[in-house]
Automatic annotation (TrEMBL):
Keywords: Membrane, Transmembrane, Transmembrane helix. One of its GO terms (cellular component) is vacuolar membrane. One of its GO terms (biological process) is iron ion transmembrane transport. Its main location: membrane. GO terms for molecular function: cadmium ion transmembrane transporter activity; manganese ion transmembrane transporter activity. It is found in: Membrane. It is a multi-pass membrane protein. It comes from Lactuca virosa. NCBIfam families: nramp, Nramp_1. Belongs to the NRAMP (TC 2.A.55) family. The keyword Transmembrane helix applies. This is Metal transporter. Pfam families: Nramp.
Length: 507
């Protein structure tokens, strides 16, 4: 048998790409814009609602990370413990998240490559592999929360018949069914996510209507900044849940699902414009959904004795006890919304895992093989978690805190490379961010990193004890800080990246 015989696990592409040319959505020429601009000029074509519709999709997939079970738990805890007082922070945290995601989209559109691929070629092999490990750890931590969230919802909907471990297996199987829809085109899969987001919006809006939160206090909470020592932990959680490391990598790949020639400046400007609009719309919707959840639990439990005991597992039952049944019991409304959040976020997590693994390792595997590997990395530890913590909600909440910390400490390994790359002239050309936006972006990154550093410090102070464990934490903390400093130093001192590919040049 010849040595170059086609292997069934290998993709036929010679180079790893986010999407095959045949999978991309065709957007050029669908509107007669040839008479309005120079194809090779700097100006983008005139605005078109039809074009906006064709570009709509990646931003909504990206917004799922703002609505996953981890965010919902942060919302309900913020509402129950801090009332309406942190709504302003939720608004600004969403705005910060939008800024980061727009930079990620810009990088993908301009270069025609995604963040994981660029990191592999920019950094030395050891640093690239370490970035990949850190990103995978963050993804696994997020995936455990998302799968457990789905499993909790299934347990509620089956009146306790399905244990958590069974819900985990069903969620894993469902994820492959949904991914199968990708064979029918990117737009079909994006439509599925639109349905799941709509289910979340309807479920939590229904809860909002059932509980009737105070509209005056809601508006004051959005407009007037309020913060006190008793709500700092919830405030940190609100900000920390918004920036998801894997989501930064994901968005730079999702925008490549549209057929864009990065060598044509006008077309690139057009794509950035439409992606910015649809991302802003998507995150505005995610903000409203998060607002519904926060205000429902603020109205129901703020100032009560059980406020600090509420988590994903018991939240629906507490609402049921508080507000009773109705046409549809609020317990099941909550479970349906939670299930939609968990299912949608596990699918996007699988997507992100494929791009991250393929980009960092330059794997040319078939998509089903990469999906299987990615799913296994998360499902195996999630099953272990479900078997151990099925009967203990308090222990499950404690584990959730550990997973939040795990994701928080990984944030610099997505933000620093992103900000470094989008400011480089030899990579981004005329689309590099200017001094003002660069300053704002680094200040935002510093703020997010500092907030999550505070969360880590508080968590270590409360949870870590003993000489051995403390010594291990100190060693890992020193190595962690050293790597972050290295990434920042490299972004400052390296003046040219030297990896600009011919197909990513902007003319």
């Amino acid at each position: 048998m010849p040595s170059d015989q086609h292997q069934p696990l290998l993709a036929s592409d010679e180079q790893e790409t986010a999407y095959d040319p045949t999978e991309k959505v065709h957007v050029v020429g669908v509107v007669d814009d040839q008479d309005h601009f120079d194809e090779y000029g700097d100006k983008s074509p005139p605005f078109s609602w039809r074009k906006l519709w064709l570009f709509t999709g990646p931003g909504f997939l990206m917004s799922i990370a703002f609505l996953d079970p981890g965010n919902l738990e942060g919302d309900l805890q913020a509402g129950a413990i801090a009332g309406y007082s942190l709504l302003w922070l939720l608004l600004w945290a969403t705005a910060i998240g939008l800024l980061i995601q727009l930079l990620s989209a810009r990088l993908g559109v301009v270069t025609g490559r995604h963040l994981a691929e660029l990191c592999r070629e920019e950094y030395p092999n050891w640093a690239g592999k370490l970035l990949w490990i850190m990103t995978e750890l963050a993804l696994i931590g997020a995936d455990i929360q998302e799968v457990i969230g789905s499993a909790i919802a299934l347990k509620i909907l089956t009146i306790g018949f399905l244990p958590l471990w069974a819900g985990v297996l069903i969620t894993a199987f469902d994820c492959f069914i949904f991914l199968f829809l990708e064979n029918y085109g990117v737009r079909k899969l994006e439509a599925l996510f639109a349905v799941l987001i709509a289910v979340m919006a309807i479920s939590f809006a229904w809860m909002f209507g059932e509980t009737k939160p105070n509209m005056k206090e809601l508006l004051v909470g959005i407009v007037v900044p309020q913060l006190n020592s008793k709500t700092i932990q919830q405030a940190v959680g609100v900000v920390g849940c918004i920036i998801m490391p894997h989501n930064v990598f994901l968005h730079s790949a999702l925008v490549q699902s549209r057929e864009i020639d990065p060598r044509k400046t006008g077309r690139v400007r057009e794509a950035i414009k439409y992606y910015s609009i649809e991302s802003a719309i998507a995150l505005a919707i995610s903000f409203i959904i998060n607002l519904f959840v926060t205000t429902v639990f603020a109205k129901a439990f703020f100032g009560t004795a059980i406020a600090d005991t509420i988590g994903l597992g018991n939240a629906g039952q507490f609402l049921e006890d508080k507000f009773g049944g109705g046409v549809v019991p609020i317990l099941y409304i909550w479970a349906v919304g939670l299930l939609a959040a968990g299912q949608s976020s596990t699918i996007t997590g699988t997507y992100a895992g494929q791009f991250i693994m393929g980009g960092f390792l330059d794997l040319r595997l078939k998509k089903w093989a990469r999906a299987l590997i990615t799913r296994s990395c998360a499902i195996v530890p999630t099953l272990i978690v479900a078997l151990i913590f099925d009967s203990s909600e308090d222990t499950l909440d404690s584990l959730n805190e550990w997973l939040n910390v795990l994701q928080s400490v990984q944030i610099p390994f997505a933000l620093i490379p992103l900000l470094c790359l989008v400011a480089k002239d030899d990579l981004m050309g005329v689309f590099k961010i200017g001094p003002f936006l660069k300053t704002i972006s680094w200040l935002v990154a510093a703020l997010v990193i500092a907030i999550n550093g505070y969360l880590l410090q508080q968590f270590i102070a409360e949870e870590v004890s003993g000489v051995v464990l403390t010594s291990i934490v100190i060693i890992f903390t020193a190595a962690y800080v050293a790597f972050v400093v290295y990434l920042i130093w490299r972004s400052i001192t390296v003046s040219t990246f030297g990896f600009l590919k011919p197909n990513s040049q902007v003319i």
